[in-house]
Specification:
- By secondary structure, the protein is α/β, with parallel strands linked by helices.
- It is 46% helix and 13% strand.
- It has one domain: Aldolase class I (TIM Barrel, Alpha-Beta Barrel), CATH 3.20.20.70.
- The longest helix has 17 residues.
- It is globular.
Length: 290
């Protein structure tokens, strides 16, 4: 159910508010181009600067627009366990298929604290939960041994792994049940993660090239490694450009240049430096996107 190219969807803004028309358009674009799962309100969706009302509204709208055509994994994590439970209950009530739970950020819990945090959410809301490990953003890494404990909780079904460490992911895979999902959280590592037993990618670059990301995942699944490699190397320079500044600054800038959305960001996210924008434009042109 949760595999292949899963897009970490941006949240489009216009005049400082969520642009609901643009949200519908980009969701339709994703589904038309082979994206297998829609993931609103994650890091790429600027969840940290959405109000509770906006956060709930984006998830409600996404579920309504998707209308069962593909699964929706709602980003409902927080650095407060009570807030994460509140957001996750809403996502379940409006029909999301699963929840993406980022590690608590800033407060830097211990491994025991991480376990108790995710356990409390899983026990409070009966919805499939995918953990999100991204120490570069949160300040704390979920260790493989902690994953092994969390994987014993029935509705914790997998992880979006953005640690950047294939060695860590491999150790984790040896410790968890075979049906525990390993999902890449890093576009540059999608193909290597698939090779060690991953099931797909929650992708930033799929916001602008959904067909190629989906085709790479599908090629690997059917055993066409040569085609998967071709697409991996084709996308790599563009993927690098997506992270020349903090995500989602480059991807929203790219979508603005492509005429997909108004590229508004919310402070403290801000407009790209000219030198970095030039690098982004160069790669978008090389990919024939602008």
């Amino acid at each position: 159910m949760f595999k292949g190219s899963m897009v970490a969807l941006v949240t489009p803004f216009r005049n400082g508010k969520v642009d609901e028309k643009a949200l519908k358009n980009i969701i339709e674009f994703q589904i038309e181009n082979g994206t297998s799962v829609i993931v609103p309100c994650g890091t790429t969706g600027e969840s940290a600067t959405l109000s509770y009302e906006e956060h709930d509204r984006v998830i409600e709208l996404t579920v309504k627009i998707v209308n069962g055509r593909v699964p929706v994994i709602a980003g409902t994590g927080a650095n407060s366990t009570d807030e994460a439970i509140m957001l996750t209950k809403h996502a379940k009530n409006c029909g999301a298929d699963a929840s993406l739970q980022v590690s608590p950020y800033y407060n830097k819990p211990t491994q025991k604290g991480l376990y108790l945090h995710f356990k409390a959410i899983a026990e409070a809301v009966n919805i499939p939960i995918i953990l999100y490990n991204i120490a570069s953003r949160t300040g704390v890494n979920i260790e493989p041994e902690t994953f092994a404990k969390l994987a014993q909780i029935k509705n914790i079904i997998g992880v979006k792994e953005a640690s950047g460490s294939l060695e860590q992911m491999s150790r984790m895979k040896k410790l968890v049940p075979k049906d525990f999902l390993l999902i890449s959280g890093d576009d540059a590592l999608t193909l290597p993660v698939l090779a060690i037993g991953g099931v797909g990618i929650i992708s930033v670059v799929a916001n602008i090239i959904p067909r190629d990301v989906a085709d790479m995942c599908n090629a690997f699944e059917r055993g066409d490694i040569k085609r998967a490699q071709e697409l991996h190397y084709k996308m790599l320079p563009l993927v690098k450009a997506m992270f020349v500044e903090t995500n989602p600054i480059p991807v929203k800038t790219a979508m603005g240049l492509m005429g997909m959305i108004d590229p508004q960001l919310r402070l403290p996210m801000c407009e790209m430096e000219d030198s970095n924008k030039d690098k982004l434009v160069k790669e978008l042109k090389a990919y024939n996107l602008i």
